[in-house]
Design goal:
Layout lengths: L2 E2 L5 E2 L18 H12 L10 E5 L14 E4 L5 H11 L4 E7 H7 L1 H10 L4 E6 L34 H7 L4 E6 L3 H13 L4 E6 L11 H4 L3 H4 E4 L6 E2 L5 E5 L5 E5 L19 H7 L9 E8 L5 H16 L1 H8 L9
Parallel strand pairs: 3-4, 3-5, 5-6, 6-8, 7-8, 9-13
Antiparallel strand pairs: 1-2, 7-13, 10-11, 11-12
Helix pairs in contact: 1-6, 3-4, 10-11
Length: about 350
């Protein structure tokens, strides 16, 4: 380890979580910033590297596991949440994280993603959203906007894109958040909240692909970010703008809209409640910006408690053992056709 805390406990640093593998993404890729933030943030959790597992699928994000000096698993396309589910249930002592992309996680892996979230499996899912297929050289993805011209849609995409935050909320995820690749402080804050959450956590990260979709998130990561980042903080009025001069308000019809704050007759800014069991407000916030080309909410949309899947499975097994006895349960599990592999 890198040092001592003074009480005999080793002090962890970014170096302890950085592998000896050469980091290989396209120069300028947003993945570099995400990797650096994660490696800088993990020592805060106080767990040694061997207590973490990073599970990745296919795509540029799939390289992530190789650059972490922890346990890691590179699975097949879209299956990272399923692999992580098995790990989390069999080894509850481990901190299991999934790295996926908008193609890997929302296309072939969409089914695994939504079921991991609805079950509230204790895994943390980071979805790198660059609104394009990067590793396979620039085809449109499930989050590409309608009309997107790519190698696979030369006349423009006809598909309506997914809203990842709304999708996660619709799957009844208990923790849903969004952050930006180059905003290190905000990203670390969101990851910290995800790590503290019991159960599944879904974090969408806007990640720039400077080769095939450069500038897609300039409104919230470039020079204009001060005016366009609508930062969600639980218990605080939702204000934004360089001078906090704008606000999110609820209009007479119950819908959310953006307005100038503090003007005569203006509605009071909406107070964000991330812990409301009803996800309606979070869902409405997810639809304030269909595309990140203007004012866009970032932060924790939804953070509620629900029984964790692994714990519930363990409780069921304990009840079964108490009601029928371990020998009868063992006999039941091995009844019918069985075989032994030696």
């Amino acid at each position: 380890m890198s040092g001592s805390s003074g009480n005999g406990t080793a002090t962890l640093t970014k170096k302890d979580f950085s592998s000896d593998q050469e980091t290989r993404w396209c120069p300028g890729c947003g993945d570099y910033a995400i990797l650096a933030t994660v490696q800088q943030f993990l020592p805060e959790l106080g767990l040694p590297p061997e207590k973490f597992v990073w599970v990745a699928g296919i795509g540029c994000s799939g390289r992530f596991a190789y650059y972490m000096d922890t346990y890691g698993l590179h699975g097949i396309h879209g299956r990272a949440p399923a692999l992580a589910t098995g790990l989390a249930l069999s080894r509850p002592d481990l901190s299991v994280w999934v790295v996926t992309g908008d193609g890997d996680g929302l296309s072939i892996g969409g089914n695994h993603l939504i079921h991991a979230l609805r079950r509230n499996v204790p895994i943390k899912i980071l979805l790198f959203n660059n609104q394009i297929y990067g590793l396979t050289k620039g085809q449109y993805s499930p989050t590409s906007e309608e009309g997107k011209v790519t190698k696979s849609t030369p006349f423009g995409s006809l598909d309506h894109p997914f809203n990842p935050i709304a999708l996660a909320l619709g799957a009844e995820a208990t923790f849903v958040a969004r952050t930006v690749d180059t905003d290190r402080d905000h990203q670390a804050e969101v990851l910290r909240a995800a790590a503290d959450h019991k159960g599944s956590a879904f974090v969408e990260i806007y990640q720039n692909c400077n080769v095939f979709n450069d500038g897609a998130f300039d409104a919230v990561r470039g020079k204009g970010k001060a005016a366009n980042q609508i930062r969600l903080e639980h218990g605080k009025p939702i204000r934004f703008g360089a001078e906090q001069e704008r606000a999110v308000v609820r209009d007479a019809g119950g819908s959310l809209s953006l307005t100038e704050a503090g003007q005569n007759g203006a509605a009071e800014p909406l107070v964000h409640d991330a812990h409301d069991p009803n996800p309606s407000l979070a869902f409405a916030l997810a639809h304030i910006a269909e595309r990140p080309s203007g004012p866009t909410p970032i932060g924790v949309f939804h953070d509620v408690e629900r029984p964790v899947y692994g714990e519930a499975a363990g409780e069921e097994l304990s009840i079964a053992r108490e009601s029928v006895g371990p020998e009868e349960l063992d006999s039941l599990l091995r009844s019918g056709d069985t075989w032994t592999v030696e």
